[in-house]
Amino acid sequence: MNEIKEPRQRLLALDTSTSILSVAVMEKGKLLAERNIKAERNHSAYLVAAIEEAMAAAGMDKKELDGIAVGVGPGSYTGVRIAVTTAKTLAWSLRLPVTAVSSLAAIGFGGYAAGTGQAAEQFASACAEAADRTGAAADYSAEHWIVPLVDARRGQAYTALFSAATGQIPRRREEDAIRLVADWVDELAGRLQELPSDQRPAGVWFVGDIAIHAAAVEELRPLLGEALHIRGYELEGAWLGLIGSEQFLRGAYDDVHTLEPNYTQLAEAEAKKLR
């Protein structure tokens, strides 16, 4: 097998973990083209065409790509597998490196950016800056907490915790997991209360499948007031592409043979509550 191509600047990103099928073509952290389609359960019927349309809109052939970024969930069991299988097939056939992107990270990033009025093109330089830190935690000032939610039924959601300041790529604070939303809100409230008032985040953003969980999240209102933001948001390819670009720049690749979706598991204590 030939050596992996260099440099890794032109990237195809794809995600089918939610009802939205997202595809983006990136170059040096800049969005060239994207397709976001309300595919519901028909991702497999639209994905190949969406990739071809995005590549054509970017004026690029697949042979010009330097890498593949794929959303690995968590989310729909069947949906996640479609994107991962497609990404692995493309990476293998084109001899390209592949990187696994948390779909929750992309949802959180996009929802937070939309809520704060930040456009995708503002983050191209932030990709390189984040890569230069080689994974070290950023010293953000006036940072925001970002909590993506993807509904998992029965009061549960796939969720995580990130933080970011204006113009920065979000960094992870808690791993992706399926959690009971009411318990998760209580846990976050406890963390916030432990912080001195001058060290609390400037804003706390709950984004994604928020409608069904809004009442639980509103329990934080007395503590946060106007610093609590609740925003419905559906994944857009640009944010997946930006995270993928940053991961490639810092050399965060995955083995194409062993790459698998991230389904997550309910914590044992929470699983017992549902029995």
General description of the model:
The chain is an alpha/beta fold and 275 residues long. The protein has 9 helices and 10 strands. A 5-stranded mixed β-sheet has the order 3-2-1-4-5, with helices on both faces. Strands 8-7-6-9-10 form a 5-stranded mixed β-sheet. The chain starts with 9 loop residues before the first strand and ends with a helix.
Task: Give, in spatial order, the strands making up the sheet with the most strands.
Answer: 3-2-1-4-5
Give unreliable regions as ranges: 135-141, 266-270
Number of helices: 9
Q: What percent of the residues sit in helical stretches (DSSP H or I)?
A: 25-40%
Overall mean pLDDT stands at 89
- Order of SSEs: EEEHEHEHHEEEHEHHEHH
The chain-level structural class is alpha/beta
Which term fits the overall shape?
globular
Strand content: 25-35%
If you compute it from the alpha carbons, what radius of gyration comes out, rounded to the nearest whole angstrom? 18 Å
Main beta sheet = 5 strands, mixed
User: What is the number of beta strands?
Assistant: 10
